[in-house]
Design brief:
The complex is a heterodimer of chains A (495) and B (95). With 495 residues, chain A is α/β, with parallel strands linked by helices. Chain A contains 15 helices and eleven strands. Helices cover 37% and strands 13% of the residues of chain A. In chain A, helix 5 packs parallel to helix 6 and helix 9 crosses helix 11. Chain B is 32% helix and 4% strand. The chains are: A alpha/beta (495), B mainly alpha (95). At the A-B interface, helix 9, helix 10, helix 11, helix 12 and helix 13 of A face helix 1 and helix 2 of B.
Chain lengths: 495, 95
């Protein structure tokens, strides 16, 4: 049997129920792994006491029988989630010292089901970034290295701590959030499964807001089954989030059969972007063959507005961010700048925000303020919202024509070195989201599945995009892909 | 659309972010680059297209207009960098 911390959630659930080990032992295994993995910088806060208390309660519940799937399963939580009494800083200096007096709906649902909180996970500041380098805690280092090299690679972002922690067996699963690809891109870079659910499937209440019309929480785990188990626990109607519809939550794990007979999978020709590495092109073709072998009909489709998704996203997301982040003013929580005797409230606001926000966050707030400002609103923001409607229409028409799910690459490359884009134009970093961002704009579910290794031995992922509210169909296709790929590579331990 | 130093200064102020005079030129160049990337949107024919306001067609739920959570003043103030006598504090704004 592998080390307890390396178990899948499904195996841990069964082992806990059979009494093969206790939640306390499982939790200690994870806490030890976390302690030994300091060089990865994946955790920003470790809540060892809380974890041990929750593990003891889970063991008591397990002894009584009738324990839910996640009872006793240790998880990591992205720092974007408010966790009562535990620091939640969104990896930003502007929220230094902030301890929320309330619990996010998603994490509350996990603890109600007996899950164990190991701590908070590092991320890009306010989830703005694709490499984890904008974090106030310093970057997360991927557990993966290129074969024969020691260069430090990015785990991706913004949920980079979640991805690294799951890939390095520090926890059995983790929460992430995805506004433009922040669950799926790091999952692809680290060889794990990441699910961005349909917009509204998981409550946003208690999750520090970035771009409210795009933000969605989701699970990150080592297998599709584990991600499905987590999603069933995280999802559900919440009266505190007005965009959360009152829909039943299926038992997603029960939907996994991997039999795709009668299903039609679309391959969008616009995703064949210029400069795409040949290994990604080849992986995509192999993925399509695997789905065909599982019974699906493969259909070439067209999503004509794809190329406008990134520029539309980089208008809409900063616009919403500039509004959401207006609340950080040095008055109600977090950092507050010192001002001179002759200075007033404007200086307090402006200096607090200059000192508290990192460069990328400042850049996005300013872009957002610009595209929303008088005289430019119609040219940028309104136009982007119209383009967004066209992007969604592309998907609507595709699904109406009988396509059940769509297969694309997850990222345009494998993980790159930390610092590689430090001097590049910010737009170069934005290009990481090219395959994922359409899904957020259209409110669809998407999942990244580890599908192979590049010539340097780094993981590559494929993405399945589902119909709105059809995570079951999407995850079933992901399950078929996972089975056919039989991806079992792990990062060799160097930390 | 290229951003000049004057516009960069105005945008920084709109965003309530202090930017040193010496950094405005670099900021203007950076913002111009990002806005240049967005210019691609001008190639799309959006005539007759309604701007999206929600990805999910749903009616907002109504609830009774009553207090759902209250009497938590100390919790609300607990994270304030400077709270006194049950209030947030700000520099003097009225002479």
């Amino acid at each position: 049997m592998p080390e307890l911390n390396a178990l899948t959630i499904a195996a841990a659930r069964d082992g806990l129920r059979d009494g093969a080990f206790t939640a306390a032992e499982l939790t200690e295994g994870c806490l030890n792994a976390i302690e030994a993995a300091a060089p990865l910088n994946a955790f920003s806060t470790v809540t060892a006491d809380r974890a041990r208390t929750q593990a003891a309660a889970a063991d008591a519940r397990l002894r009584q029988g009738e324990a839910p799937d996640l009872c006793g399963v240790p998880l990591g939580i992205k720092d974007l989630f408010c966790t009562e009494g535990t620091p939640a800083q969104a990896a930003s200096n502007i929220l230094e010292g902030f301890r929320p007096p309330y619990e996010s709906t998603v994490t509350a649902r996990l603890w109600e089901r007996g899950a164990v909180c190991l701590g908070k996970l590092n991320m890009d500041e306010f989830a703005m970034g694709s490499s984890n380098e904008t974090s106030a805690y310093g970057p997360v280092v991927s557990p993966w290295r290129r074969a024969g090299e020691t260069a430090r690679l990015t785990p991706g972002g913004s949920s980079g701590g979640s991805a690294a922690a799951v890939a390095a067996d520090l926890c059995l699963g983790a929460t992430g959030t995805d506004t433009g690809g922040s669950i799926r891109q790091p999952a692809a870079f680290t060889g794990i499964v990441g699910v961005k659910p349909t917009y509204g499937r998981c409550s946003r209440w208690g999750i520090i807001a970035f771009a409210s019309s795009l933000d969605q929480a989701g699970p990150m785990a080592r297998t599709v089954t584990d991600a499905a188990i987590l999603l069933s626990a995280m999802a559900g109607h919440d009266a505190k989030d007005s965009t959360s519809p009152d829909l039943p939550v299926p038992d997603f794990a029960k939907a996994l059969r991997g039999d795709l007979r009668g299903r039609r999978i679309g391959i969008p020709r616009e995703y064949r972007v210029e400069g795409m590495p040949s290994e990604i092109e080849a992986l995509w073709e192999r993925g399509a063959e695997m789905l065909r072998d599982a019974g699906a009909e493969i259909v070439e489709i067209s999503l004509p507005h794809t190329k406008y998704a990134l520029p539309a996203y980089y208008v809409i997301a900063p616009a919403e961010a500039s509004s959401n982040l207006a609340r950080y003013d040095g008055v109600r929580y977090g950092h507050r700048a010192r001002i001179g005797a002759q200075e007033g409230i404007t200086e307090l606001y402006e200096r607090t925000r200059a000192e508290g926000f990192g460069k990328e966050v400042q850049r996005r707030i300013m872009i957002g303020a610009y595209v929303l400002s008088a005289g430019f609103y119609d040219a940028y923001y309104l136009r982007a919202q119209k383009v967004r409607a066209l992007i969604k229409r592309d998907f609507d028409e595709t699904f109406a024509a009988g396509i059940d799910a769509i297969l694309t690459p997850a990222t345009p490359s494998a993980a790159f070195e930390l610092g590689a884009l430090a001097d590049a134009d910010p737009v170069q970093m934005y290009l990481n989201d090219v395959f994922t961002v359409t899904v957020n704009l259209a409110g669809l579910p998407g999942v990244s599945v580890p599908a192979g290794l590049d010539p340097c031995g780094l993981p590559l992922g494929l993405q399945i995009i589902g119909r709105p509210w059809d995570e079951e169909g999407m995850l079933d296709a992901a399950f078929a892909l996972e089975r056919a790929c039989a991806f079992d590579a792990k990062a060799a331990k160097w930390w | 659309m290229s951003i000049d130093i004057e516009t960069a200064r105005r945008v920084a102020h709109l965003a309530r972010i202090e930017v040193a005079e010496a950094d405005l030129a670099a900021l203007a160049t950076e913002l111009s680059g990002i806005l240049g990337f967005m210019e691609q949107l001008n190639a799309v024919d959006v005539s007759g297209v309604e701007p999206m306001t929600s990805v999910t067609p749903m009616t907002l739920a109504l609830r009774a207009d009553v207090v759902t959570e209250g009497d938590i003043r100390d919790q609300v103030l607990a994270n304030a960098p400077d709270a006194r006598a049950g209030f947030f504090t700000v520099p003097k704004v009225v002479e």
